[in-house]
Amino acid sequence: MKKALLLILTALVVQSCATPQSEISASASEAAKGSLPERDAWQSALQAGAVQVSWIASFKDPQLTALVEEAVEKNLNLQVASANLDRARALARQAGASLSPTVDLSSNANRSGGVESSANNATALNLGLQVSWEADLWGRISSGAAQATLSAQAAEADFLFAQYSIAANTALAYFAAIEAHIQEQNSQETIRLLERTLKIVQAQYDEGMASAQDLALTRSDMAVARERNQALINSKSTGLRSLELLLGRYPSADLVIRQALPALPAPPPAGAPAELLERRPDLVAAERRIAAAFNAVETAKAARLPSLSLTGNLGGASSDLSNLLNPANVAWSLGSSLLAPLIDGGRRLEAVNSANADQQAAIAQYADAALNAFGDVENSLEQGEGLAIRLSALKESEAQARKAYTIAEILHKEGESSLLDLLTVQQRLITAQSSVTSMERASLQQRVGLNLALGGSW
């Protein structure tokens, strides 16, 4: 008994020599920060302040908000990610349970006697309580539990970023479907104009006022317009099906959506690059994996050192159930075992080397993810500036085309220009309107991408 207590005290003293979790966490954090270049502000923008939250609401589109909520609730890929998160949490709790003693209850009954006579038959009853506990020498078990907990935290951050991504993809699919509908309407209007143009050219050709080349070119334009219209119809159906798949619905392309793009919201404040590391869920996940890798190294190192296990048994044996727990029939035992690795062919050493390699890989993966995230923000900020200039130019083009159409309409009414001239100008106006629609959708897409890159909550 005294020897067992001495071993317990020795184990507690040795356990106190294990590397504290605070030191491991600090080392992991330092390694993560040291892998990145320093940057105080974004190159492509001057915006500052807190990153916008609930950015889906900034589009002021109730249908979009409802669709995003439906996607986050019912998307099948998110359901898989949620199950994986539950599994990671369960593994973390399982690893943490290794720090606690295990208690098992055992019982058995045996009956023995002669074959020809039952007079000497006897029943032996046994009831026992078994307790075992492995002392966490060198922090091996606690490091393993911390590794599992950090891995679960990484899975939580991955799941959160998956939700952000689903929200963003739902918004992108929604905008694409709306644009396809608008472009289809523009295409049908173009076909109607070309049909009128073709009638005029055909009549002119019949009267010898137009050449066969003019007629052939007009028919060619008509064929191209019809091909484009069919492509837009297919694009609209594909966009609706993509959106329905994100929502977890059957892809029947019968989802009814609004027929106009929402207004472009103001750009969100970008904050600072350093804030992105703590805000964006995928980077948080990568940083947690570094910390988990550091704990894995500690676990591998501690596995090369001796381990101590304590066991205890308390049980009773009797032929009579009523006397089974009688103190006279109860016995106890307490034991300990010390296991010190001697020769394993280098297996444990290579486990340390492998853990060190995984640690370096986790640091490099974090740096790569962070640099890509910085690139996402910089590209999106620069793209926003460029799209604003392009959209302004296209709107000016549309305004001038509308002005030209108004003039052509007046001239046609006064008989100073032909219907063919009027239709030509009108077609240019429709083309300008189509270009503006495409740029408006690209601008909305940029806002979605920027919010996702900044780690803003949907």
Q: Could you walk me through the main structural features you see in this protein, from its secondary elements to its overall organization?
A:
- The chain has 458 residues and is of the alpha+beta class.
- The protein has a single domain, classed as Outer membrane efflux proteins (OEP) (Up-down Bundle).
- Helix content is 65%, strand content 10%.
- It is built from ten helices and four strands; from the N terminus they run H-H-H-H-E-E-H-H-H-H-E-E-H-H.
- Strands 1-2-3-4 form a four-stranded antiparallel beta sheet.
- The protein is elongated.
Describe the protein's topology.
Elements: H1 2-15, H2 21-34, H3 62-74, H4 76-97, E1 102-112, E2 122-135, H5 140-206, H6 212-246, H7 273-279, H8 281-302, E3 307-318, E4 330-339, H9 347-413, H10 419-453
Antiparallel strand pairs: 1-2, 2-3, 3-4
